[in-house]
Design brief:
about 220 residues; alpha/beta; seven-stranded mixed β-sheet; elongated
């Protein structure tokens, strides 16, 4: 499975997309190729990454379909954005960007870690999370969170930690992710130089994940 294709599969047709932290611009290129948006803002804090995106989408920029923006998060973006895409950043960083910017009508987030922070922020903001699952691509597991800025969602503490859709469907990729994390934690717990507090937290998480996996049998 291709990571870029899977991320873009969560995008709904709209008018203006902001690809924040666009990196090389692959998601923006695919979204335009599929005819999902009339315009895409390419935003990145790194001048080097933005130049790569500008090179990849040189024709689209000349045609006015793409607008590069060198900025931190959503700073410098106009208010006409109806869809926000942030992929490849940490969950805490995504939340910071949203707190300093705004949450448009539609959103797609692919946090590299701390996905629970993103879920918690969205639930508190009254957003509706329509997709919240784990997929495997290019040798890694990724969380994908998508929805709309209206309607609201109710999440339990366990659903915030692991994803409501994951717990409901118990998909293969999610189960494999839990198995891998269980193995890593079990191995890490063999260390003797760990504080009691950290050991207790890891043991609790390991027990929770094993419990979730046992529910599938």
């Amino acid at each position: 499975m291709d990571r870029i294709a899977e991320i873009c599969s969560a995008l709904k047709k709209g008018k203006v997309l902001a690809d924040v932290g666009c990196d090389h611009g692959y998601c923006a290129r695919l979204a335009l190729k599929k005819g999902l948006f009339e315009k895409v803002y390419l935003s990145d804090i790194s001048a080097g990454s933005l130049k790569k995106a500008e090179k990849l989408l040189e024709r689209e920029i000349k045609e006015g379909k793409c607008v590069p923006v060198l900025a931190d998060g959503m700073k410098g973006l106009p208010p006409d954005v109806d869809t926000l895409l942030i992929a490849g950043l940490g969950g805490e960083e995504i939340v910071r960007i949203l707190e300093e910017g705004y949450l448009p009508e539609h959103f797609v987030f692919q946090p590299m870690k701390n996905a629970e922070k993103v879920r918690e922020f969205l639930v508190k903001r009254g957003a509706h999370i329509g997709r919240d699952d784990t997929f495997f691509a290019d040798g890694y597991f990724y969380d994908l969170i998508a929805g709309e800025n209206y309607g609201g969602s109710e999440y339990t503490a366990r659903e915030l930690a692991f994803g409501k859709q994951n717990l409901r469907e118990m998909g293969r990729d999610f189960c494999n992710k839990l198995l891998c994390e269980c193995e890593k934690i079990a191995s890490y717990l063999k260390r003797e130089d760990m504080s009691g507090e950290n050991r207790s937290k890891l043991e609790q998480r390991l027990e929770t994940m094993r419990g979730i996996l046992n529910e599938t049998h």
